[in-house]
Each structure stands twice: as structure tokens, then as C-alpha cells.
Amino acid sequence: MFTNYEEALQYLYSTAPEFQRIGAAAYKADLNNTIELLAAVGNPEKKFRSVHIAGTNGKGSSSHMIASILQSAGYKTGLYTSPHLKEFTERIRIDGKEVAKEFVVDFVNRTLPSIERIKPSFFEITVAMAFEYFATQKVDIAVIEVGLGGRLDSTNVITPLVSLITNISFDHKDLLGDTLQKIAFEKAGIIKRGIPVVVSERQAETYSVFVEKSKEENAAITFASDSVSARLDGDNLVTDDFEVRGFPLRGIYQEKNVPGVLKTIEILNQKSFKIGTSSIIEGLRNVVSNTGLKGRWQTIGESPLTICDTGHNEAGIAQVLRQILREKFSRLFMVIGMVKDKDISGVLSQLPKDATYIFCQASIPRALPAGELAELARSFGLKGAAISDVNDAIAAARKSASPDDLVFVGGSTFVVAEIDNL
Q: What pLDDT is stored for residue 14 in this prediction?
């Protein structure tokens, strides 16, 4: 039995394989462990209403926006996301408040015999923990973000009121497939019989995959980008029906996410929820303060302007580069770290050759050593130093930069996670 949070968490990290740290070896290609573990704790997944969100890019931001809107409308709202940036408890929240550390300890102690018997992964345990927490706390609704893929993801045991699938692009090709159609098939696995599904963005390569799956499941499908538009105008978010002044998520990629969020809310309103325009505006304006969302085009320093973003695959980095082009600066410094199992060449081939680079690495086994990344980058015409520690790398970039330069930090969620005072 564990007497404190640190002991319980250390047990989970050391006993249960965690995908975020070690990669594909922790991935379980079926739901058996999850089903067995949930049965052992009384099937909490059947005791609360939910929204289920999958996608390659945008699912985290969309989850936080929907949760914030529901919260602003007065609903007791659970939010399950992954990975965490700073603290494990970030993964499980109710109305923005992180799960109590005492609950984590209690859950691990109570389920220890089942954990030892079933041998679930770290993610499978956290899913069961979140679902039990939402059930016991009697949330009005929970927003559940898929961890990886969809069809075989541990979260895919719920029957939500509505499913949302965000942008599809290349990521985890070794596990999800090497074409957009194969990846979309895995994401489409969250579409349930008779449950409406919203797809944020109509994409030519994946359209038929989602249409066929929705027909097969007799699920009404809506492509949000067909009927809803959203654009960022400075600090404001402008949609067809309203404007959000002081919208805190400045990344232009949010223009792809907001239509899916709004359509999902529209469907919830058709299912007896009462979420007015004022709650939508309030929820979007306060998404960061309501939910604790971090790392999405977030300013972490001034003079020089220093910005971080968790975009980490080809499509995510492409959006980041589009955003950088909209900023005003003299020189660009990029602090970049990556993990070994990403399409590193696909990302490096996009990065600007006229930037000054400092390559770093996160403190996880999956991280590509900074020196190796720097060497690989040189073959793409990218030059710079290798400084392993993320914060030392940022400090070096800021020291070399002038006040009117731009320092960007990213390449991996885990690089952003290690930024001091994020």
C-alpha cells in the first residue's frame, strides 16, 4: 500500500509501460485490459454522459474549448486529456480543477490487486482512474480526448452523446498506418451506432472513410467546415454568428478547430443541453483560465518574444511555420527537440534554413539525443548548436537574440513540458 502520491505515481511509472516515455512498446492493440480493469472498478464508463474526441492535430485544443464552454454554461464538466505537461493530475479535471492527489493514491491502492493481475499499461490505468473519478463526482458531462488512434484506444469504451474528429494528418505511422486513409480508419473507430459524429474539416483524402463508417453505424455525420467558418483577426476570433474579443489561443490552426467545436455544441443543444451564445463566447474567451490549457502558441518571454507550441508532426509544424510568418521580427531562433519515433526528416525538411538553431532533448527515453538531431539537421541545411537541457537551450537562444528577434521553442510536446514556469 502506498502512503503518498509520489510513491503511487512512481509505482505506475515503474510498473506500467507508458507510451509517452518509451513509445510503441507500451501500445496495446486491443481493449481487453481496459474492459477488464473497468469491470473491476464497477464499470464507471456507463455512469456519466460524454463527448468523445479523436484526431491527429487539434483534439487537445478542441477538448479544452468544449469543456470550457460547458463549464461556462453551468455544467459540472469532466475533462480527460493526455499527455500531461507538468503534473500527472493535469490529465483528469473537473471544472478546471485537477484531480486530488489523495484520489490518485486511493485509486492505486484499491485497484492494486487488479493492476497486478491484469498488468495494464499506464494509459489504461489512467483511463480507468479518470472514469471512476467522473462517475463518483457525478459530473453532468465529461469531455474525453482519445490518446492514440481511436478504434483501439482505451477511451473507446464509452458511448458518448456525440463524437468529434479533428484534422487528420501523418503521425504514429508505425502504429496507425502509412496513408491518410488508414489513419482516418483508426480515428473513425470512435464512431458508434446511432451516435452523431462531427468532423471538423472536410479533407479530400479522408472524406469517404468517414462517410462509409457513419453509414455502416447509421450515425449522422456533419462536416463542420462545410457550414461554419472561423478566423483569427488579431486578438479576436470571428465566426459567422459572433466575435470573441481577447481569444487567448492565437495559433491560426485554431481556425480549423473552432468549427468542429461549435457544431459539437450545436448537437449537444439538440440533446437537451442549454448552451447559449453568451456561454459559448465566455467559454472560448476563458478557455485557458477555465481549463489550464498550455503550450498552444504560448508566449513565455518578451524582448525577445519567445513562443512555444506543442505541434510535433509534419502538419503541426507546417501550421507553426505559417504562424511564424505572420509575426514581425528581425531574426528567427529555433529551439528544437524531437522524439526518435516521429518522421524527423519530414519535419526537418520544412524548417527554414535562414533560422539559427539550438537543438535540445527532453528527459525521456524516446528523445532523440540533441547531438544526433543536430547532425541530421545539417543534412537539411539547418545549422546550430546542440545543448541537451531544454531550459539551457532556451537561455542560450535568448542570450544570442536581440530584443526584436523571435525565439520559437518546440518540435515535441515533451520539450514544451520541460520549460520552466510554463
A: 85
